[in-house]
Amino acid sequence: MALGEVVKNMQIILKNYVTGSPKKTDFEMVPRSLKLKVPEGSRGVLVKNLYLSCDPYLRFSMSKPKTPSYSSDSKPGSFLP
To answer: InterPro entries per the record (predicted)?
Structure first.
């Protein structure tokens, strides 16, 4: 892959707030196109993710908030952090 190239990407979207254990139906995989770029003059790198890890911490951010939280909660229709 070269910089400036447009590549296909799959984005994981939260469809519904999670109640109980997360289910496959709570998420949606959406194909997207993405242009590979690193700011000129930066020492940044591009990486390719092969797997998605859904850590236990994310479980709380995918639930409907009952009270204001210090962390950013995900909302249905948004991609996972």
So the answer is: ADH_N_2, GroES-like_sf, MDR_fam
